[in-house]
Amino acid sequence: MPMGKKNFQFIKKLALPSILLIILILLIILTFEVIFQDKFLPFTFVGDTNITFLTKAQAQRVIASKFNQRAEEKLQFDSFFIDLATSSAKLDYSALDETFKIGRTGIFTQRLTDQLKTLFLNAKVKPKIYLKLGSQLEKIAASAYQKPQDAQIIFSEASQDSSPSAQIQIKEAKDGRELNKEKLKTLIEDFLLFGQTTEELPFKIIPPKITTEHVQKAKIALENTQEEPVKLIFDTNTWEIDTKQLLAILDLESGSDLLLDKNKTLTYLQKIASSINQEVQEGLFEFNPQTKRVTAFKASQEGRRLDQDQTYQLITDTLNQSQKTINLPVAVVKPKIQTQDVNSLGIKELLGQGISYFAGSIPNRIYNINLTASKINGVLIPPGEIFSFNQTIGDITEATGFRKAYVIKEGRTVLDDGGGVCQDSTTLFRAVLNAGLPVIKRTAHAYRVGYYEQGFPPGLDATVFYPSVDFQFKNDTAAHILIQAYTAGNTLFVDLFGTPDGRVATLTKSIVTNQTPPPAELRQDDPTIPKGEVKQVDWAAWGADVVFSRTVTRRGETLIKETFKSNYKPWQAIYLVGTKE
After folding, report:
1. For the purposes of burial, counting CB atoms within 10 Å of the CB of 553, is it exposed (0-12), middle (13-18) or buried (19 or more)?
2. pTM above the 0.70 mark?
């Protein structure tokens, strides 16, 4: 036989089985596709229900039958029951549509791959289930709930007084528990789909707020103070933290990792601080224009302050150490200006002066004017610092030495503590204007006050009302500025001394517009005043808008160019007419 013919027959023998195998595979695939054209693929499960070879309608009927049967049952978890018949259980069958698409979408190779996966890995479907279990779960949760028990310190003596001889014991903490509602819902859903569930309720552990470990640390600290209290020492003074005091500041309530309750400890330390702390006393100074020297009429004095935060940490660190003595950290607070340094601060000449008159003032008003002057007199303002009238004077009350005189308050002129203080803020405002210093905050009075227009045009006043309405200016010179305030007869002077830098302040005349006459007087019956007696409690004043400008220059350079506007309301005279028989 020729060689070529033999090779052909050999190849024919090899190819025939392969061709037959391919044909067989194609027939199998074709048969598979035909059989499962409208049926779920092999090994497709919904819960424990095998829906292989079933159409979507058949699968839904089979699943619904089993689901509805289970949805009528009562489940027992420990000693509690869940009645599924009242839960309105419903199954979302839309998941079947998505499952049916497996192996039926995409290109041929993708479909074939998905179909093979179901043969080897199974297709497990878990549809969404809707349940109404609210009231049943709440009842079970309430009954099964166990509150955690915090660890506690117990003193064995009957007196429970934490005395040095008391034996300290611990009542250990216990975990609590609460129903894990989400886990229980999952178990119920698994039963509806698979027909099986556990008989035990699922719980979440609730740890106690105060742990045994935390209380154990507190116990050790208390026992250590029984043997030797913690001593806090400053200078010749000693304070002891014994067992009773330590128990009062321990944190056995919040659940914090900190052994000491910081708020309680700081409250305890505040009492100690009140014996240690001293406010720094800034010196008050006086300038003599003849000698051009500054002398102190009240020397500065260092202050001191207990560092309470650091002391808290020191006590915490010391509780479990053998050394039980703490030298309290007390910081020295230096005054801004030392008395011995005052003549090196540049107080050389008068920068500006303010003047006002207060003729006709009642005695209490004159007293308050002088008191306020004494509070700003001698104050030194460092370069770059903003002077606050309110911060310097402080609260204006009877407790701080002020007397009752007429003030503008809540739209009325009334007797109140500190009447007359605005005479000083107004005079200081005028000194600042003349000195060419920047005005930071200034507020005009509600109405035109006669005292401030004695010898001066309107618009040159500045009201204050502690703590909200303030007068402030800035020392923008290179040296300190000294305030000197004093009275002579019915005149108040405020002088500002410092180092001149060549600035010149120019003020325009006040322009008064929109003058409005006061409203007609008002007379009100007052049953507390004897009949026939009339008492004036508010005084008439014309309303007006007042404007003036200030320009501050230095060697041809304009430093400040500004306009001050004041809107004064027309003010009504008010009389109280007595009706008391």
Report:
1. middle
2. no
